[in-house]
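Exam revision sheet. Question 4 asks you to relate a sequence to its structure. Input first:
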Amino acid sequence: MSSSTTTPDLVAQERLPVAALLALAMTGFICIVTETLPAGLLPHIAGSLAVTPALAGQAVTAYAAGSLLAAIPLTIATRHWRRRAVLLLTIAGFLAFNSMTALAPNLWTLLAARFLAGMSAGLAWSLLAGYARRMVAVHQQGRAMAIAMVGTPIALSLGVPLGTWFGTTLGWRGAFGIMSALTIALIAWVVLKVPDYPGDNGRERMALRKVFMTPGVPSVLGTVVAWMLAHNILYTYIAPFAARAGLGAHVDAVLLVFGAAALAGIWLAGRLVDRHLRAAVLASLALFACVALLFAWLGHLPVVVHAGVALWGLSFGGAATFLQTALADAAGHGADTALSINVVAWNSAIAGGGVLGGILLDRWGAPSFAWALLVLLALAFAIAWSARAHGFRPGPRAASTAARSAAAGH
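Answer key, structure tokens:
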């Protein structure tokens, strides 16, 4: 009798809440597309507002600055709030500030709207991973995060092409209007499908410094910075790099190859993250390093560029899932704060990749990217390899997480 009544409950517990997790993925998709949309719209924005393309390009900078500056303080300020209320706040922010962008009469209004939209993104990124983990049992957390992160590679591969297409068909204001319409649909989706959870009601919160110095956290963050610096040097300057192989007019196709491969990487991450997190991180870094070496030798050949971009996308697809899972596991009760630090580290790497890649391009040209990537990836690999005791532990996550919880209890 009892077994017949408990079995359906156990099955329900094992079933992933896919609809809710995909709502988180859609939130991430909106974050990334909102960030990258101006890159495909710069001529239209510049012409409409009577400014130079360089000034219009600061719309991307303003968004990144908002994310960088707001992630930690907003995460701390909202830590006691119910989780769905915080999620809805971030989505409402995109609705308000993308609408403000679409209606901006001048550059300064546009930049203010972009900065505020970036603040919404900073809060969202610090929230999504922890929310996905909270929906499922410990042994399902990696798979749940893989689903919640699936919007990222889709947005990375489609953001700029979508912006270009919208700019030519609907105008740049219409493109941001569509983003606002998507957020209205997402708000309804979250209300209907995403469960609510209480905030952190503990009287004492872990200090930022204490979270940062938790064993394993610095190692994971170091890996994030080195890996994402390497990634963003190549991703930011993919156009001049592809032009070296005669693919300058086909950057959109190259990005689609990257995105498709990254989706496969996300699928692999879902299969590997709970049982083989450490091995998957090391293998991803090693594969990307092999791609860099291939580009160093044969990066002038179109077939090598296409094949290398596919392998690069495969190695990158699971990065967000692997790194955020490892960081949250290492931080324990300070996971939300650690993930907000991760937003800062990630956005710093995006900015740093743009600066470092620009210096390399001006001084030594696109061929120098491959050697810079090799140095950064070797550093990331060394950090991850050395974090065997904390950060990137071998073996199944459920076992290591339980062991850490038991140790903390004693």
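Marking note for examiners. The domain at 16-200 is CATH 1.20.1250.20 (Growth Hormone; Chain: A;).
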